C-alpha cells in the first residue's frame, strides 16, 4: 500500500464512483490507525488520520474521539470540508476502553442532489421564482426571528388581473413570459431578494409566485405600515407598466393586500390569510388599489386624517400650482391648446402617491374645492395669455367624477367664466370613459348641460375603456384623446398601430377631433401625422411648463413661424 500524501480519502480516484468514497477505521484515542476495516483508496501502514484529512478536520476528529471514549456513546455528524467544496459524514462508535470505530463517507454528491431536489421543490418553473412552499417556509423563519427582536414584518400579496391574460387569448407560453417579466421587475426593484446570506433575516426580502395570478412578498424589519404601503405603491407602478411579448403589449391590472406582523397575526398562516383577505378587499376597488388588513385600519385612519388636514391646509394657503402642457397642430406646428395640470405641494405629497391623494380628496369631497381652484387659475391664466395677444389659444381642464356629476356644475362654471372674462368656446373640458361607464344616463345629462354653455368636451383615455362606436356616435363630445399606451406601442406593435388608426378614423367619421397624448419621439409624431391625427401632445413636443415658461415657449414658436 502507498501513502496518500496530500490527497484526502474523500477525493475520487480513477474509475471510482462517488458512492465508493468511504472508509471504516479503528482508531486509538490520539488518532492513530489501528485497523483498516474498509477503504476505497490506499492507506499505508503506520498512517495516522493526519495523512488522510486536512488539519482542521483532524483536530475535529480527535476532539470527537476523546468525547466518545469519555462518554462511551455513539456519535455522528456531517460537516463541510475544504472551504465548503466537499461535505462528509463521520460516525464514531466506542470499541472498548481505548478504541473507536470511525466510518467516514463523502456526502457531497448526496448533498448536491438534495440541494437540487430542494430547489426544484421550492421552484415555480414558469417564472423561475420561488413557489408557495418556499414563501411559507421563509416567512415562518423570518417571523420567528423578528419575534425575538420585537421587529415587524410586512406580507404583500399582489394579484395580476387582465382579460388579455386568459389562456384563450395569449396561450400558455405567452402567459408564462408575461409572468416572468413581472417577476423579474419585482426582483430588480427589491434588490437582494431571494439571494445573499440565507441567515440575514434583517434584509432577506422574499419574492414568490404563490398562486396562478399572484405574487407574494415578505419585507423583514419594515418600520411601519406607511413604509409597506410606499413599497407596494412602487411595485404596483412597475407591474402596471405594459409588458411586451412577441411584439404585442399587454396591459396589466394590479391589486395588492398587506398584512403586518405582529398586529395582523402571530404566524405565517394567519399573516398570509390576512394579506389575501386584504387583497380581496382591494379587488372590490379601482385597479391599482392597495388594502390593509383590518388590524391596521385604526393606523390607516389616523394617517388619512393627518393627510386630510394637510390637504385642507394647503388649499387654504393656496399652496397648489399649475403646469401647462402644449397641444400642437402637427402640420403647422402651432400651439392650439394648453392642458392645465395640477401640481400638489410638497407638504402634501411627502411619500404619498398622486393616486392616493386624489382618492382621499374624492372621498372627503375636497376634490370639488380643488377642482374649482384649478378652473379659476386656468381661466385666469388663459385670460392673461389672450390679453397678451394669443387670442386663438384654448385651455383644457380635467374634470373629476365628483365635479362632473354635480347638478349645478354648469351653472357654477358659467358664473366663473363670466367673472374671469373668458369665452366658453375657448374652454376644453376633459372627461374619461369611466365617468360615463359609472352612470351613462347621468353622464349624458351632465354633458348636455355643459355643452349648452358652449364649451368643448373631450373624451380622455380613449381606447382603454368600454366606449363603443355607437356610444361615440351619440355622445355630445367634440373630440377624443387617444391613450398614451396605444401611442407608445404604435411603432412596434401592429395591433396598437391599427387601434390608433381606427380611433382617428372613427373620430373623423363622427366629425370629432383626434388628439394623441404621450408622444415621446419624432418617429411617433411622424406616424400619427401620417395617420391624420389632428393634434399631438407629449414630452417630445414639450414637458409641462410653468405659466412664465409657457409664455416663453409661445414666443419662441411665434418667432419660428415668422422666419
Give your account of this protein's structure.
The longest helix is centred in the last third of the chain and has 22 residues, at 366-387. The protein has 20 helices and 20 strands. Helix 8 (297-317) packs across helix 10, helix 10 packs across helix 11 and helix 11 packs parallel to helix 13 (409-420). The strands form four sheets. An eight-stranded mixed β-sheet has the order 13-14-15-16-17-18-19-20. It has 563 residues and is α/β, with parallel strands linked by helices. It is elongated, with a radius of gyration of 35 Å.
Topology summary:
Layout lengths: L21 E7 L4 E7 L15 H17 L3 E7 L4 E10 L3 E8 L1 H14 L10 H17 L4 E9 L5 H4 L1 H18 L16 E6 L2 E7 L4 H16 L2 E3 L2 E3 L2 E9 L6 H15 L7 E3 L4 H21 L3 E8 L6 E9 L2 H4 L4 H11 L1 H22 L6 E5 L2 H5 L3 H12 L6 E6 H6 L1 H12 L4 E7 L6 H6 L4 E4 L1 H6 L4 H16 L3 E4 L5 H9 L4 E2 L10 H16 L1
Helix pairs in contact: 8-10, 10-11, 11-13
